[in-house]
Design a protein that fits this description.
- The protein is an alpha+beta fold and 470 residues long.
- Among the domains are: 183 residues, Neurotransmitter-gated ion-channel ligand-binding domain (Acetylcholine Binding Protein, Chain: A); 118 residues, Neurotransmitter-gated ion-channel transmembrane domain (Methane Monooxygenase Hydroxylase, Chain G, domain 1, Up-down Bundle), CATH 1.20.58.
- Helix content is 46%, strand content 23%.
- The chain is built from ten helices and twelve strands.
- A hairpin with a 4-residue loop joins strand 6 and strand 7.
- It is elongated.
Length: 470
């Protein structure tokens, strides 16, 4: 009797489990099926969106396939296009962005410009229905052939790399290629300073292939002289750019042969106003300042000597400063001619006062002899005073002088002797003595003449100088 309820409960539990468990598993399968359907729908939608985006922006598809599309792996790009046949023509055009600096000391210039190459490489041709080109950056340059252009007589050069290397490669469906880069070059410019600072300099930047001679590569300007373009705002502090031109030629090397060479020529004319203010005008002032001594009394020795020495030293300073900023060339420059002639005028003004002072001293000594012998002590004191302060104490000498005209006449009679000179010699001696006497007695006339001659000669020199060099 006790087993019956237990059997009944066991049968009930088994019935419930047998009925309900298939429904639970079925519901879980249904949920899994629904989730799988939703995920498949989402994946389908995402794939459609990606396909639509790729169709809208085709540039995102080509970079992933450019190597296969351009057949880069199928060719050996160590060889130039058309190897073994005719030379590959490479066209060049240049757009000058700026001339950064011109250095006279180093004889060089620095230029920034865009260098563009044009050539055709059929190995890079690709099919295209729209005939549109593909543009790449510097990362593709290492995998294809490009011309090896270098700059003759260059000292240093670099390709700009901010924020990435400034290199562009554009490939057209027919295989035509545009290769452009932005570069700064410092190159030699053989300058002639014989007319400095009134000079005009002709500089050129030369382009040439390093490895390929004219049998492998033909280098030429794309549109002749129009291939060289410049910015309108190009200006320099000391120069005015007069002309830009393009030309071509050949260069021969004994070991490798003939090469095509392209030239970027430009003419620079120097601005003169800076040197007028810094060199010519100060030199003129120093020369005119040296003339002031001609109006100072010849007895004022300290004033005239100090003025002459000051102007000479100032001219030396101007000459040295100009030479320090120039290369050490072996020929005479135009500015050297002007400065040295101006220094000569200043030096002659000092020499002029030395001559005036010497003649004045000789004149005073003769005056002492004519007035007679003064006491030895007084005569020595007067000469010492004259040598010390440059002033002649005529009043004191007149008061203490002795009238010895009669003694001189008596001495002349007693010591006189008949002359044996011919009349012509006597005439020459009398004429020379008369001129010398006039100069000695009127030495202040030298200052008077100098006030006129020095300015006239300097004006004539300036007229000749500016007429020849300008």
């Amino acid at each position: 009797m006790n087993l019956v309820p237990q059997l009944v409960s066991f049968a009930y539990i088994w019935f419930i489990w047998f009925i309900l468990m298939p429904n639970a598993s079925a519901s879980s399968d249904i949920k899994k099926t629904q989730e799988w359907c939703v995920s498949s729908v989402k994946q389908t939608r995402n794939s459609k969106q990606e396909t639509r985006m790729r169709k809208d922006d085709i540039t995102k598809v080509w970079p992933l396939k450019h190597e296969q599309l351009l057949h880069i792996e199928d060719h050996d790009f160590a060889m130039r296009p058309g190897f073994g046949g005719s030379p590959v023509p490479v066209a060049i055009d240049v757009q000058v962005e700026s001339i950064d600096s011109i250095s006279e000391v180093n004889m060089d210039f620095t230029m920034t410009f865009y260098l563009r190459h044009y050539w055709k490489d059929e190995r890079l041709s690709f099919p295209s229905t729209t005939n549109k080109s593909m543009t790449f950056d510097h990362r593709l340059i290492q995998k294809i052939w490009v011309p090896d252009i270098f700059f003759v007589h260059s000292k240093r050069s670099f390709i700009h790399d901010t924020t990435m290397e400034n290199i562009m490669l554009r490939v057209y469906p027919d295989g035509n290629i545009l290769f452009s880069l932005r570069i700064t070059v410092s190159a030699m410019c053989f300058m002639d300073f014989s007319r400095f600072p009134l000079d005009t300099q002709n500089c050129s930047l030369e382009l040439e292939s390093y490895a390929y001679n004219e049998e492998d590569l033909m280098l030429y300007w794309k549109q002749g002289n129009k291939s060289l373009n410049t910015e309108e705002h190009i200006s320099l502090s000391q120069f005015f750019v007069e002309e830009f031109s393009a030309s071509s030629g050949f260069a021969f090397y004994s070991s490798t042969g003939w090469y095509n060479r392209l030239f970027i020529n430009f003419v620079l004319r120097r601005h003169i106003f800076f040197f007028v203010l810094q060199t010519y005008f100060p030199a003129m002032l120093m020369v005119m300042l040296s003339w002031v001594s001609f109006w100072i009394d010849r007895r004022a020795v300290p004033a005239r000597v100090s003025l002459g020495i000051t102007t000479v030293l100032t001219m030396s300073t101007i000459t040295t400063s100009v030479s320090a900023s120039m290369p050490q060339v072996s020929y005479v420059k135009a500015v050297d001619v002007y400065l040295w002639v101006s220094s000569t005028f200043v030096f002659l003004s000092v020499i002029e006062y030395a001559a005036v002072n010497y003649l004045t001293t000789v004149e005073e000594r003769k005056r002492f002899k004519k007035r007679g012998k003064i006491s030895g002590m007084y005569n020595m004191n007067a000469v010492q005073a004259m040598a010390f302060d440059g002033c002649y104490h005529d009043a004191d000498i007149d008061q203490a002088s002795l009238s010895l005209h009669s003694e001189d006449s008596i001495k002349g009679k007693s010591t006189g002797s008949p002359s044996t000179d011919s009349p012509q010699i006597k005439r020459r001696k009398s004429l020379g003595g008369h001129v010398g006497r006039i100069i000695l007695e009127n030495n202040h006339v030298i200052d008077t003449y100098s006030r006129i001659l020095f300015p006239i000669m300097y004006i004539i020199f300036n007229l000749l100088y500016w007429g020849v060099y300008v």
